[in-house]
């Protein structure tokens, strides 16, 4: 359990997340993931990183129960900083990152996938931000990298999800495969990338990041400020207390 790194093939580093039952990461898990991705990217022998997960879903975001157990704000601050580091690690990884997504990809999972270079998904993969149902805000920055602007807003306000097939139609998913074929499909693409010259692929990654129209680090940090404001006002706690109930129940304005 936790985050592990293996080298399945020359030039490829496989970073795997495993936090049962749904890969909702505790604070330390986000930092472990950030460290693993950064370490893999710095390895001169690595030319592509594959980010994958064990279990029924890729990522369910932060561990809400960890926040509920915290009488103060330390868990929230830790989660904010941990997510920021993990998302940035994927984006700033010195080599391309291929995300292999199965099942649910929610909340923080969108931050990881939205910052990845390429996404390969299984047929059962679903993508969304249930933040408004969890007393949080954030990662619209990253959802906007996966779907058009107005669809992003609709998904964000409703907490609905989009399927892998829908994202394939928008061009943000490279390939959709059956779940048993997911890792092989991600490794196949990583293998093609890893055939490129190591120095040139790193220059290519830096160049592409340099022409991005949005500074994902700054825009996400801006979003996080509103999450903390929601906590200070008491709105977030009230909504988090309904976690596990029917969405929307108990969320009416007091």
Automatic annotation (TrEMBL):
Pfam families in the record, alphabetically? ECH_1
Q: What keywords appear on the UniProt entry?
A: Lipid metabolism, Lyase
Work out whether the entry's keyword set contains Disulfide bond.
no
Q: Does the keyword Lipid biosynthesis apply?
A: no
Which family does the UniProt entry place this protein in?
A: Belongs to the enoyl-CoA hydratase/isomerase family.
UniProt name for this protein: Enoyl-CoA hydratase family protein
Origin organism is Streptomyces melanogenes
